[in-house]
Write the structure tokens for this entry.
Amino acid sequence: MKSKKTVKNWIFLAEGNLKTAKDKLASENPVTNTVCFHYQQCVEKYLKAYLTFISKSFRKTYDIAELIEICKENDPDFQDIYKLNAHKITKYAVEVRYSDELYIPSLEETKEAIEIAEKVKEFIIAKLKNRNFEL
């Protein structure tokens, strides 16, 4: 495993994205594209925390499916993350941030994104705790 500090840093960053998304979603007239971006970032960073924990390298990417595939090489249980549709939130990394590809998620999509982020977080935290990683 790379340093525990690096794993904890990924988790810290993921939690920051999760908090920011929740805070923005709770505001009046939430900007769903920004909220969904932060949920995507949360999922991405939790996956990168796990990959760092198992010392598995990954390229700089926003692609959730690519990160899941790398995780699956070490643990086939990561197939379950596909069942959450986590790979579908990759579109919130880019399409919601740039004017030429602008996409505004509905409030329903945004609520689905929070469910995905929360479940991925729970999944990764459980995997880390099962391997005696202290958070």
About this structure: The chain has a mean pLDDT of 92. The chain has one domain: 4-130. The two ends are 15 Å apart (CA to CA). DSSP finds six helices and no strands in the chain.
